[in-house]
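To whoever is on call:

I kicked off a structure prediction for a single chain this morning and the downstream step that reads the tokens threw a length-mismatch warning. I double-checked the sequence; it's 209 residues and nothing unusual in it as far as I can see. Pasting both halves so you can look.
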Amino acid sequence: AFAAALAIDEEDVMTRTGYCDAQQALGDQALADENVETAIHYFQKILVINPSHAVARKNLTGVFLARAEAALAAGADEGALAALNRALEYSPDDAALQARYAQVLAGKKAKVTAGYLQKTETALAERRWADAVGFVEEALRLDAENGELQAKLVAVKDAPRQYKIDQYRREAERALAREDYAAAIAALETAVQLAPENSDLTDWLQTIH
């Protein structure tokens, strides 16, 4: 009846109010019966008639916020963020909702970043230098201003050089153990060429000389 009346006179305030009240009642009942999708349908029908309807907006915000929290509890970060986005569509000025979205997004970034860093360490251990750099770069795409990640990228790019330095250091130690000073000096000279800033290597080389 309300829908038919609206088709005749969309500006009839009493008819519009009655229609919205009816949809609200149906939505409330659907929520009580745990028919969430049906409730969403009824609340959204209210907004078609009255886009600023405060109660319908509040109800839809609550529905999607609850869906977001359930997704989080199940470990579904993407689903949670999608639901929070929907909630924000109905309550864009809700500071607490904005903060919750930011918190969930930060948590997801942290989780994904930790995964990339774990892959980075595995790649470094296996001397897959390019893969290691790629993993850190992926992490930085999520958080480009992260100083720790920026420093990590510099360190990972330098990892092949550090590996070679360490190999020459070990070679020098083995040579000294067998009293082959010429081989030790040669190894350390190469290491110093790779790391002229390393005073420990320079001092060690001078001591052997």
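Update from on-call: the warning came from a stale cache, not from the record. Cleared it. Sanity check on the structure: The mean pLDDT is 91.
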